[in-house]
Amino acid sequence: MIVVLKPQTTQDKIDHLVGWLNNQGIQIHLSVGSEYTIIGLIGNTDKVDVELLESLDMVMAVRRVGEPFKQCSRMFHPEDTVITVGNAKIGGGNFCMIAGPCSVESEAQILEVAQKVKASGAHILRGGAFKPRTSPYAFQGLRAEGLTLLSEAKRVTGLPLISEIMNVNHLPLFEDVDIIQVGARNMQNFDLLQELGHINKPILLKRGLANTLKELLMSAEYIMAGGNEQVILCERGIRTFETYTRNTLDLSAVPKLHEISHLPVVVDPSHATGEVKLVPSMALAAAACGADGLMVEVHNDPAHARCDGAQSLTPEQFNKLAAQVRAVLEVIRS
Length: 334
What we know:
About 30% of the residues lie in helices and about 20% in strands. By secondary structure, it is an alpha/beta fold.
């Protein structure tokens, strides 16, 4: 349920209403917009006297929210959420380029890639330290050492960091990581999501391989219900019957998520397609359809990469793509 207050409602009246609702055991989510203030009621709202609420002078409307996800809903929070990390902003008309290798392999590798993607316009450096792999024999990442190398790249370039977490016990190691990524395989690891809801750090949540948008938003709700409202949604392709690409990139998810949720949405064309030749076209399409950013894999020597080299751009290819993305954004914003 949401309560829309009339413009110019005083803070004293808002505080009084919030206190009254809290006394009834209702959790409150307050959204202050440029024109309206919206109070989201979370919990068992059956005992709330809707007619009494509607009769209050300060109340413009009372509406019930049909979706099971409340805090993610645009009804609760009409204005776009903007995530700020260092000098980078994601959402609300800001476009963010996230780039770097699938996996951190060495100090020389991550420093070279970090410096080159920054020179091309990347705002955030990605790099995997803990790598969930289908095969137990595949390279699993450098783990804590990889995070240390990422921190060094951050020190040298000034780029904020994003890296994937697999186990809540690893959380202390992510102190210097600016955005924590939850991978597709952990999208419904609810214990992990609940713990991430208690920290003050942005979370990038990737859509699962076979999950609906509703399920993605419900997973985001787990994080937000814990108090962490800094959630970024990521479309990275879903598994279909198609075999010519690694996954099927669902670009229709971008405008649909923007319609029903206020959270920013970024697209990962690298994991979606699995082929480097497909990454640029899908990246440009993502920018054109309204994505708030891109997450692109870049490796200085893809042929010898220990992880996902087939879908990784070289720094030179990324430089060209970044210029093309800026051109597309300029066209659609004009």
